[in-house]
Amino acid sequence: MSVLSALGPQVRMRLRPIMAIKIDLQQWLSEPGNDFLSHISLDCAVFGFHAGELRILLLKMKNQDRLALPGGFMMAQESLEEAAIRTLEERTGLENIFLQQFHVFSDPARSESADRAEDFKKMGMHPSKMEWFAQRWISVGFYALVEFSQVNPKPDALSETCCWYSLEERGKLILDHDQILETALATLRLQLNYQPIGYNLLPRKFTMPELQKLYETILGKKLDRRNFQRKMLSYGILHALDEKRTGVAHKAPYLYSFHLRNYQKALRQGLEAGW
Amino acid sequence: MSVLSALGPQVRMRLRPIMAIKIDLQQWLSEPGNDFLSHISLDCAVFGFHAGELRILLLKMKNQDRLALPGGFMMAQESLEEAAIRTLEERTGLENIFLQQFHVFSDPARSESADRAEDFKKMGMHPSKMEWFAQRWISVGFYALVEFSQVNPKPDALSETCCWYSLEERGKLILDHDQILETALATLRLQLNYQPIGYNLLPRKFTMPELQKLYETILGKKLDRRNFQRKMLSYGILHALDEKRTGVAHKAPYLYSFHLRNYQKALRQGLEAGW
DNA sequence: TTTTCAATACGTCAATATGACACAATGAAA
DNA sequence: TTTCATTGTGTCATATTGACGTATTGAAAA
Q1: Of the partner residues A101, A104, A182, the one whose CB lies closest to the CB of residue B80
Q2: Within 13 A of B39's CA, how many CA atoms are on the CB side?
Q3: What pLDDT is stored for residue B3 in this prediction?
Q4: What residue spans of B194-272 are helical by DSSP H?
Q5: Which residue in A4, A175, B151, B206 could disulfide with B202, CB within 3.0 to 4.6 Å?
Q6: Of residues A3, A182, A272, nearest to B190 (C-beta)
Q7: What angle, rounded to 10 degrees, do the helices at B208-219 and B225-234 form?
Q8: Which of B7, B140, B186 is the closest to A7 by Cβ?
Q9: Do A108 and B1 touch (CB under 8 A)?
């Protein structure tokens, strides 16, 4: 078994048809019961790349100043991945989202949030649901990579807004979500040579400087322009197009797209060495 | 935050004092209630290295031909890591076990085992406990690295024996444990340059050929003896001892030990490049 | 229109790392 | 005492890396 296939879903590949169950969340909040598994939740760090920056999709919680990663729960017949995809389809409007689980956060102290009973009451939450939210949660962290321009963010029942934040300017997150996000970023760095990260974050056509900026952002360091191009081309995973990017100041850069077949093959080897 | 610190516990480092709760498992089986969280379990791939081979610690299930990874459940106030450590201390007699979570297995079909009601009844299991075992389980996979010679394997309440198997000669495992084990191995390969795998699998003093054999086993390919030594020494993570291994046929090889400080520093960089 | 200039494309070269071997030394077993 | 599989050390051609130089482009400024 290859490393990649052992560790999870492939490039934008659907595991199994998702049940198209749509839940009216406001109504769900006001009812006593629910169909979700107890104790287990998931939180997603959704990354996009825009204007040379990594962006993260965050929810602004109702009656609170804090931001939160989009999260969700598992239904009785779902896998974690299916639950995460369902959650993110609701939040982004996208289908076929690339995601990877990366860590389970299970510190008993992580669920001991401030008492939000008052807020929940204002939101019209049923008492039994408040109890349910107050239980201990073990959360599986996912990171998701999406094409920034394709996303239509939608808040969930507990949040006012859902929008993009730059990593530097993001505010304080709820609970241990800062830690989850930091761990997601560290994982991204670690998996840069093993996962189709460029492919899923960039639009189909992109320039070499754009690809380089993405690598620099994830790795957190400057790379030499000329050496980057040499190495990247040597992998044979890029398809040089005849087009150039127009309407941009200075010399027009060439456009590239990924040679998906070679890319996946190269990732399986691990794009040997580091940067 | 460094990649390592973001991704979990460090080299044989205790997170927090473990509650020294010892459970009489036979009695626990015969009682109705239990203090464990529902739905969430953990399974551990415990690796040792002996006679130039990777070994895996497996349980032979009572009334069954199948083998199983040591597993366990979470108590109300434990983190996953603490639960895994508690489980493995019971199974191996070791303290300060190095372990890493690597994947969550959540396919709804994974819990749909053959009906074992008859077996469970023979074992004196309480009916409510049988129901509890029959629920859907989402299992967090851990791999653990132990020093083979230090382990005192002990079976649990559901198993007859607990002992080492070579990876090739192991029999068929229950449920999806084969997949969990394969994924653990793939993770080990992937993390060889980022985790203190040699340090935790080998005894304190070891020879260069032993270290090489370990790398070859995990990577699944032969390495050149001389190039391996050159590269390994260039990292500066080894401490050359004055002793040689005696009592062995042919030329006596030198002994080495890890220079822990340099080793950890090097791992944080990722022991650049691959083999 | 012409000029400017920041950004891009393409190339060079020394230093380093890698892969593939050769050869001498050792020490238990024959 | 000899044998010989195994270990310690070294060499060399080749590939890769890091650092930097120069020519080209095309929108924006003059």
Answers
A1: A104
A2: 21
A3: 37
A4: 197-201, 208-219, 225-234, 260-269
A5: B206
A6: A3
A7: 100
A8: B186
A9: no
The pLDDT tens digits for B17-57 are 444 456 677 787 888 877 899 999 999 999 999 999 999 99
| Cα–Cα distance, B269 to B83 (Å, whole number) | 30
Beta strands of B189-237 (E only): which ranges?
206-207
Smallest Cα distance from B241 to chain A, Å? 30
Sign of torsion over alpha carbons B163, B166, B167, B169: negative
Q: Report CB contact under 8 Å: A272, B272.
A: no
The alpha carbon of residue A80 is apart from the nearest alpha carbon of chain B, in Å, by: 6
Quick one: pLDDT at residue B114? 62
Q: Would you state the structure tokens that stand for residue B19, as one six-digit string?
A: 């509650």
Q: Is residue B1 predicted with pLDDT exceeding 50? A: no
Write down the pLDDT at residue B22.
Answer: 60
- pTM of the entire predicted model: 0.91
Query: Which amino acid belongs to residue A7?
Result: L
Helical H runs in chain A?
A: 3-7, 25-30, 80-92, 117-122, 127-133, 177-191, 197-201, 208-219, 225-234, 260-269
- pLDDT mean over B159-169: 93
**Chain B, 7-46: which have a CB under 8 Å from a chain A CB?**
7-8, 37-40
Contact B138 A40 (CB under 8 A): yes
CB contact under 8 A, B40 and A2: no
Sites in chain A below the pLDDT cut of 70? 1-23, 113-114, 272-275
A229 touches strand C (CB under 7 A): yes
pLDDT tens across B58-93, in order? 999 988 889 999 999 999 999 999 999 999 999 999
Residue type, A213: K
